[in-house]
Amino acid sequence: MLVAALMALGPVLWVWFKNRGGRSHQRQQALRVLTLFLTFDLVLFGAFTRLSDSGLGCPDWPGCYGQLSPVGAASHITAAQNAQPDGPVTHTKAWIEMTHRYLALVVGALITWQAALAWRGWWRQRTLPRAVARPGVGPGLATLTLIWVGLQGAFGALTVSLRLYPAIVTLHLLGALVLLMLLVMQVVRGAPAPPQLVSAGMRLGLLGAVLLLLMQVTLGGWVSANYAVLACSDFPTCQGRWWPEMDLRQGFEVWHALGRSASGGYLNLAGLTAIHFVHRLMALVVVVVLLTLAWQLHRSPPWRGAARLLALLLGLQLATGVSTVVLGWPLLAALLHSGGAAALVLTLTWMVARLDWQTEPVPAAAPGMNRSGVQA
Fold first, then answer.
1. What is the pTM assigned to this prediction?
2. What positions carry a catalytic annotation?
């Protein structure tokens, strides 16, 4: 915890120095943006840790063989590497795993600091008139974010102690994306921009798109956690067939060790194929929904930039997903695919957080009519 506080001190001092001429709320907003940026980096680095098979680079938690860094655990790591040169513990994998933990500690410390600032701001403004009090991030959202990052740390520990159980790995990924969503909400609430008006149907459409995307990301995490990416090595067919042989029951048994079924045997090809192919089928649904949503949003001038960004990210996600399959799971394509999923979640959450949930937009008046529908 002391190391985390010292490491987080650097970003805090940098934000305060860069905004030393600004007001307190401006510095706090800059810190929120920086925390969001570092958390996105943490999600990407977590994907890199998983994709490079470094999740057990240090097989204990929170240290590495009981040491603060791989330097102190060098002898243990060397012995494990000599016993299994291609095994889960090597010097490179240990540093990748511990770097991920260090970055997570920094993010946790920054979120703790933001929660403290939110409570301090609430305490100072509690007696001020509503017209004088400055709107911003309330202590409730900041505290929820703090609690959530603590749960993420617990799932990180379980990921190591349970030796990469797919259910825990997938929940850890999903929790990281929810953390991103909470931080985006903080950034939006801390910004002075007014909320945007859309119809009630569009609001429901955006919420539905977020939930659908989270389901698809969960399926993608299940594919990666079970190493089912190469169960289908061709596209658009799978194993040369439009509808391959699948074992849905085995593929979606939730609680089992890595590479094993719930009964203790090895996951068969039909089970792995089911995991992969269901992710593909859901991708078709997500593409249709998000493209329709982007088209609808593009018709509204205030949302055109966001709609184009949504369509661009969706196109990149399709390209990296197909490349991951047909090129044999290259690390760069898989990493970009994970990052694209996080960027889509971030973008949709930002759009939802910008909405005005109380006011209905006023319809445009027809030619020759005023807004009340009376002939001009």
1. 0.90
2. 97
